Amino acid sequence: MSIRTAILDDEPLALDILNDYVAKTASLELVLASTDPFEVLQMVQEGKVDLLLLDIQMPELTGIQFMKIVKEQCRIILTTAYTEYAMDGYEYNVVDYLLKPIPYHRFCMAIDKLSPNEDTPVIGASDDFIFVKSGYKTLKLLLKDIVYIKSDSDYIAYYLTDGSKVLSLDNLKDLQDKLPGSFYRVHKSYMINLEHITSIERNRITTCLQNIIPVGDRYKEAFFKRIQS
Fold first, then answer.
1. Which of 13, 38, 70, 98 has the most CB atoms less than 10 A away?
2. Other C-beta atoms within 10 Å of 116: how many?
3. For the chain, where are the E strands, in sequence order?
4. Which long-range contacts (CB under 8 A, 24 or more apart) does 120-127 make?
5. What is the residue extent of each domain of the chain?
């Protein structure tokens, strides 16, 4: 079930960016993006919003005032350019506090905090596919469609043959034990599907997506022995 998401921000550019982030996050469904706090307030009070991405500094009704009105009628992630309101956010039990400009990976980390349980992000695997927990959804990924996997801070990204990517809380070390031998660790931050390598030049791998993946010194010897065998 998708998370019904509304965005309230008095800056049209910020609305556009968050709108784009919501659109490419599988677990979210955008129900409203608006600069009008009273339009959003009505939807929240009608029970049509599960999650609100809320700016703080707005001329008609501040984010703090908005939270005082809605109380716990929906989950809230604060989006702001100001650090001084962080304590107010914790007082109202917000999901997260995002400082602008907000990178997409940080946005995804906030969405992952909405997860209703603590299941392992990779729930199951077979010779042909894996089930991956991404936000509220559990996605089935065909192994043949995964080009490479990249670790970044607290999450990993699965890059797929169609150019899309799936984000999940996990780590490469655990994945090494769950994925078949066609997936090989080539760097502290990268695992690659050997089937999608198009060329190797020195310590650089080119994939079918035309991405360049570095081969780390720690993994170099084992990797080249692997492909030579």
1. 98
2. 6
3. 3-8, 28-34, 51-55, 75-80, 96-99, 122-125, 129-134, 137-142, 146-152, 155-160, 165-168, 183-187, 190-193, 197-201, 204-207, 212-214
4. 120/170, 121/168, 121/169, 121/170, 122/168, 122/170, 122/174, 122/175, 122/178, 125/178, 125/179, 127/180
5. 3-112, 122-228
Q: What is the pLDDT of residues 72-126, one digit of tens each?
A: 889 999 998 877 766 666 567 788 889 999 999 999 989 888 754 444 566 566 7
What pTM value is reported for the model? Answer: 0.53
For residue 192, the cross-strand partners are: 148, 184
Phi and psi based region of residue 210 (left: phi greater than 0; alpha: psi -120 to 50; beta: remaining): left
**Contact assessment for residue 149 and residue 141, using Cβ atoms and an 8 Å cutoff:** no
CATH C-level class of 3-112: alpha beta
H-run or E-run covering 47:
none
The token duo for 7 is: 């965005």
Q: For 122-228, which CATH superfamily applies?
A: LytTr DNA-binding domain (2.40.50.1020)
Place of tokens 């650089």: 204
